[in-house]
């Protein structure tokens, strides 16, 4: 199984029954929170849901709960008052051979095509957003908002000029790297360590071109040295689409307080993540890993090839493993510890929500998007204003997008060029 599939199994295994001491909300609190979300614009900055678009049996308009593969669909978006977000073009990191680069190029284009096909097939329910102001218009029209992002820029290694094509097709958020180093940047989690000590020369050129086009840069998954390069290099703010606090759990995917303050000073935003392995030490053993590998062999398909029906089988199998070889479960308490710390460091103007749905995110007591009002209820309980909550649920991120697009528009005007927005 590829690295992505292995990491997903770790997180899926954490979605076990709720512990006795977990935070609870009354029905009145949740109803008030949902009503508030329905008035506001509620966006998540990192949805891996396009990974399901090719799966046999998956229909975004149908409910697929009790399934290890699916946490986002239209019925649960409606139940959880999620207006939409950034749908990710994710490409597994290959071996960086010329053949792998071509495979990554084609895989990225295929995922982009699947997103655009979904939009064309369901124009009454979903709409593509291209500017920071489009989201509110789409919500007002009664549809769900689809921004397009790219997680891992490896599809651009073989031909970086494809970035312009992706932009014209809707790309508005770009990260350079994923679990392992690539030709553009160092990853926070590559076991081999740093290769470029930040952005590579090709990565600097890619980031510069993205800024010219008005694409927001996403630092999640990149190393701290990449963060430092972005702080020094970018004329506009950037974001972390799904990351958490290193002060709460010292994981390389998380951000330390010094860099959090630098991010806020630069006008950027961190979207707090709910991937259990980045929130807590899950204590996974070799025996548990071997049991998960055996479960996948029993199901008889690689993670990317699983059907939606097999997702039910996978969830049941992981639940049985939890009884014999349990892992520590990440809960809303753990998530709120990260969220509260980050809010205390940078303030609500620089915080958002990016829970990594359908990519390993979710908690024992926040298992899919239908439960999102729990987060809003917590924010209300903590005394945050409606305006601050609106910022956290998308306004802060869209402010960064507006700045990026205004900067690009200013360059076009200055240079006398009429490039597409």
UniProtKB/TrEMBL annotation:
<dbReference type="InterPro" id="IPR032466">
    <property type="entry name" value="Metal_Hydrolase"/>
</dbReference>
<keyword id="KW-0732">Signal</keyword>
<dbReference type="InterPro" id="IPR008257">
    <property type="entry name" value="Pept_M19"/>
</dbReference>
<feature type="signal peptide">
    <location>
        <begin position="1"/>
        <end position="22"/>
    </location>
</feature>
<dbReference type="Pfam" id="PF01244">
    <property type="entry name" value="Peptidase_M19"/>
</dbReference>
<protein>
    <submittedName>
        <fullName>Dipeptidase</fullName>
    </submittedName>
</protein>
């Amino acid at each position: 199984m590829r690295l992505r599939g292995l990491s997903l199994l770790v997180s899926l295994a954490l979605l076990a029954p709720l512990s006795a001491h977990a935070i609870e909300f009354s029905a009145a609190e949740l109803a008030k929170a949902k009503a508030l979300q329905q008035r506001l614009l509620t966006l998540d900055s990192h949805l891996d849901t396009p990974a399901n678009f090719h799966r046999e049996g998956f229909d975004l308009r149908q409910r697929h709960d009790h399934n290890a593969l699916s946490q986002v669909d239209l019925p649960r978006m409606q139940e959880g008052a999620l207006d939409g977000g950034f749908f990710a073009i994710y490409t597994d990191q290959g071996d960086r051979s010329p053949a792998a680069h071509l495979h990554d190029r084609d895989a990225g284009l295929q995922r982009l095509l699947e997103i655009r096909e979904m939009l064309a097939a369901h124009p009454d329910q979903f709409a593509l957003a291209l500017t920071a102001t489009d989201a509110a218009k789409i919500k007002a029209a009664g549809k769900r908002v689809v921004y397009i992002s790219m997680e891992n820029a490896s599809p651009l290694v073989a031909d970086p000029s494809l970035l312009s094509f992706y932009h014209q097709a809707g790309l508005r958020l770009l990260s350079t790297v994923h679990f392992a180093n690539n030709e553009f940047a160092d990853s926070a989690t590559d076991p081999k360590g740093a290769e470029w000590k930040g952005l590579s020369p090709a990565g600097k050129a890619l980031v510069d071109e993205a800024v010219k086009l008005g694409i927001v840069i996403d630092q999640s998954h990149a190393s701290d040295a990449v963060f430092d390069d972005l702080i020094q290099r970018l004329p506009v703010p950037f974001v972390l689409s799904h990351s958490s606090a290193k002060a709460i759990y010292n994981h390389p995917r998380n951000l330390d307080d010094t860099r959090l303050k630098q991010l806020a000073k630069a006008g950027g935003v961190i979207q707090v993540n709910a991937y259990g392995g980045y929130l807590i030490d899950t204590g996974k053993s070799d025996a548990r890993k071997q049991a998960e590998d055996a479960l996948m062999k029993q199901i008889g398909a690689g993670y990317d090839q699983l059907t939606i029906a097999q997702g039910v089988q996978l969830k049941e199998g992981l639940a049985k493993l939890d009884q014999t070889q349990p892992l520590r479960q990440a809960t809303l308490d753990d998530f709120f510890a990260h969220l509260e710390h980050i809010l205390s460091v940078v303030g609500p103007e620089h915080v958002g929500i990016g829970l990594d749905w359908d990519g390993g995110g979710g908690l024992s007591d926040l298992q899919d998007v239908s439960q999102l009002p729990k987060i809003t209820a917590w924010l209300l309980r903590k005394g945050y204003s409606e305006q601050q909550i609106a910022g956290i649920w998308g306004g802060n991120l869209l402010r960064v997008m507006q700045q990026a697009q205004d900067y690009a528009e200013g360059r076009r005007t200055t240079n006398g060029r009429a490039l597409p927005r």
